[in-house]
Design brief:
Elements (H helix, E strand, L loop, with lengths): L2 H6 L5 H11 L4 H13 L13 H20 L6 H24 L4 H29 L5
Amino acid sequence: MPRIQSRLANFEMLPRLGELLEAKKDSCPDCRNYWCKLQESTIAFEEFFDDGNDHLVEFENVVDETMQHLKSAHGIRPKGLVLSYKTVVLMVVGLFIGFLLGLIEPQLMKTGVVMGWLLGTLSGWFWGKRVEKKMKKNGLIF
């Protein structure tokens, strides 16, 4: 299976998610329920790749429900999610600032937009990495 397909189908985070739910299942009844659902949905793992069945859709629904529970009840996020949000937000802010600079000084439009995008992306990435590092120390990233 190609790496991108496994990432899109949530298979890449399956071991980390299972490990987290197993650790939380004794203290949270919802986590126990999601852990059982995850175990049931992965019993017929080879059937995920057969055409014309709903196993993959059911698995993705279980993972999505589990992620919503972890986010709302425990404040836990998957690795890379916060980093992506911070990077995209500051990328857009950088583009906007570069565009505004170009409106003020039209000959700087291209440079302003490119530099705004680049600086926004880099600062968002570093900010996201720092936030995720703190979250990981507090056990809020899996």
